Structures are given as structure tokens and as C-alpha cells.
Amino acid sequence: MVEGQAPVTTLLATTNGSDRVTPRLSRRSLAIPLRDTQVSASTQTEPKHANCRQVIAKTEKKFGETPPSSKLPREIWKWLQNMSLRKNIKNVIRDFSNGYAFAEILGHYYPEVVSIEQYRDGDSFPSKQANWHQLELSFKKIFGKKQSRSEMLKQMTEMTIHEKPGAPQQLIFYLYEILTAKKVNWMPGEYPENYTDDKYQALLPFHARHTASTAIKTNLKITEEKTCPNINSEREKTERILDRHRNWKSGEKKSQPIRFEKRPTLCELAERVVPPPSQDRQKANTK
Hints:
287 residues, mainly alpha, Actin-binding Protein, T-fimbrin, domain 1, 46% helix
């Protein structure tokens, strides 16, 4: 073999019971050093091909590429794990929306009031409504009529059904502080209090933020239309979302005029001079 040349694949003769000879590739002949363009994932880790060029894919993760996480503090997770819930919690916003996990929490502390057999672990909207109707009755028995009718509790339960961001976390904190008489350590503003994704949109780059249609789609759930099928109320919610979206866009254009190629109008470029007071006005002022 000539130096510097790759070894040629050798053929071994085998017989298959007849006089006919069939070629067979030897294992040794397959160990050919790969060129720079012939790199595969299966041969990169073998020591005999250590002199070959390795291709390592490095895809940088863009900031704000992933959706907002539905995380909870560590003490809340320990509290939930100690109760050994049947519900497997993976996504807090989705898994707490049907009320089954809340029923298990209340049944752990008040088994004489809440029976888990009356609840269904389903994702359909009728099953959610049935579960939360039973939870409202349990709230009245446990916390009393005055506390169960508070506007804050009603708003949290309603937004939890519609899977709004921040609503189930705040309801979990509310129950944790009442049932355990402990204070949750969490930073103010960590969870959205207006139950929108404005905080997540602020982390995204300008090109990845909502348009007007996607803002309505993400902030107005179809379950809200089922609970209150009123055209006027839906129109008010849509207009509120659009107004907030316009304010966002106007603020972006003011902060980044070069990106949006915002040019001043002729009215803004024109020099404004205060007209001198006329003689009639001076006479009127003197009188």
C-alpha cells in the first residue's frame, strides 16, 4: 500500500455450499479513516476515529423563546407532595383549572366536608363547571359565607377556570396561608396580578411580540364566551385588550424610533411662533 493512501476494501471469498464464490466484506476493511466530509454521529466517539473532524451542533437559545413557566415556590411543592395527591401536577395552570387538585387539598384538611368521589378529573368544560360548583359549596362550609363571597376569591376562581396566567398560583397561596397559617415568601410582581401575559411579552424581542389578533386570541379564552355568552361584554373585553395592545405599540415606537422608521411630520418640523397680540385684544385687556 502506498503511504498516505487509504486502505482499499478487501474481499474475502466464501463458499455457500456450491462451487460459486461470493465476495464478503471483512470487518477490518471497514475501518477506513473518514474524510472531513464523511463524519457520522456513530463514529465520532470511537477512539480509532479520534483524528477525524467532529461536528458539534451548537444552537443558541434565544432570550424569551420559551413560554412563561408556571412555577411555584419550593415550600408550596413540599406542601403538595406531603399530601400525596392523586393528580399528577406537571403544568400548574392547566392541571389546577378543573378544580380536582383543589378538592384533594381541601379533602386532606376537611374530609368530613369534601368527598373526592363527587369530583371528576376531566378536562371538558362541563366537568370543570361541576367541580367548581361543588368547591363553592365547600368554601361556604369551611370559610363561611362572608369570606367565600369575597370579590378576590371569586375573581381568582373564575380566572383559574379560564387558565389565565397567575390565577391558580395566587389561589394556591391563598389556601396555603389559610390552611397552614403560614406566609408564602414570594416577590411582589413575580406572578401577573392582572391575569395577562404582559410580563412575558416584555421579555420577548420586538419581532416576536403579539400582533392584535394574537393578543385577543391568547388573552380571551373560549371558555369565557361559554360562561357569559353576551356580545356586549365580549366586545368590551376585546376593546380593552386592543387598547392595551395599542398602548404597548405606541410605547415601543417612542422608545425605538429608529427601528420603526418613525419620521417627524411637517407639523412637528415646522417652527411654532406665538402670534403677537392684536390691537383689539390690547384695548379689550386695558378696558
